Amino acid sequence: MSSVLAPLALIGALTMNVLAKLGRFVLFLLRSFSHIFRPPYYPKEFAISLLTIGWLSLPVVGLTAIFTGGALALQIYSGGARFNAEAVVPQIVAIGMVRELGPVLVGLMIAARVTSSIAAEIATMKVTEQIDALVTLSTNPMKYLVVPRLLAALITVPLLVGIGDIIGIAGGYAVGVQNLGFNPAAYLKNTADFLELRDIVSSLVKGGVFGVIAALMGCFYGMHSDRGAQGVGRATKGSVEAAAILILAANFVLTGLFFSV
Q1: Largest CA distance in the chain
Q2: pLDDT 10s per residue in the chain (261 long)?
Q3: Contact at 8 Å (CB) between 203 and 103?
Q4: Which residues 6+ apart lie within 8 Å of 106 measured at CB?
Q5: Which of 2, 9, 13, 243 is most buried by its number of CB atoms within 10 A?
Q6: 8-31 per-residue burial string, b: 16 or more CB within 10 A, e: under 16
Q7: So where are the chain's domains?
Q8: What is the model's pTM?
Q9: DSSP assignment of 137-189, as one string?
Q10: Would you say 72 and 95 are in contact if contact means Cβ atoms under 8 Å apart?
């Protein structure tokens, strides 16, 4: 009988662990947003978070976007040549970058760069008892550590997405004009005529959602990390994995909301 019940017990234990972690995350999410609207505020921490999440992420976002836009132009031209549809390169590069590739790639880059950094930083503070020291000094760790990073990600990631979209389209433009023989003025006109306001709005909204996900995952895993160096490593790895999966899942949901027929 025990051999029969053992698999069921394992499934039950895994289910309880998943539900417990989900419950902790929901409570963490509610507490994070509740603290946004209540003083005290920490403008210095917020400014530092703006710098680290936004400004310092520009190089990796720009390089990722420009190479992606250029590669996308080459792929569309190559594929379109099979159907005599090479002329659609400007339109497809624009819609591909703005609707999907721009927000998703920026979100994943932020998850790789920022989420891991936040999780490692906060987990290290927990291991070295700096968070306990904040409590001793009557400083709420949620207000001091989580809220500034959450607000900074909410503000800066949509801006990074917008910049990434522009750079990606510019990369496609450069390849299209220099390598594929497109007329510069016609390329820009086709790009501008094809994009709609809904495309731009959806891109920026996705950026805001992805930024919140990235910051929340870093803060959550950092605050709930285990003790020791291994705990910091597991928190960092788990935060990036969770952020990447949630970003892709949120992208699917938001795409359905904005573009479902």
Answers
A1: 76
A2: 466 677 777 887 888 887 888 888 888 888 888 888 888 889 999 999 999 999 999 999 999 999 999 999 999 988 877 777 778 888 999 999 999 999 999 999 999 999 999 999 999 998 888 988 988 888 888 999 999 999 999 999 999 999 999 999 999 999 999 988 888 998 899 888 888 899 999 999 999 999 999 999 999 999 988 888 888 999 999 999 999 999 999 999 999 999 875
A3: yes
A4: 61, 64, 65, 157, 160, 161, 164, 207, 210
A5: 243
A6: eeeeeeeeeeeeeeeeebeebeee
A7: 1-38, 42-259
A8: 0.90
A9: TT--HIIIIIHHHHHHHHHHHHHHHHHHHHHHHHHHHHHHHHTS---HHHHHH
A10: no
The structure tokens listed for 18 are: 């998943």
Structure tokens at 187: 């390329």
The tokens for 88 are 């659609």
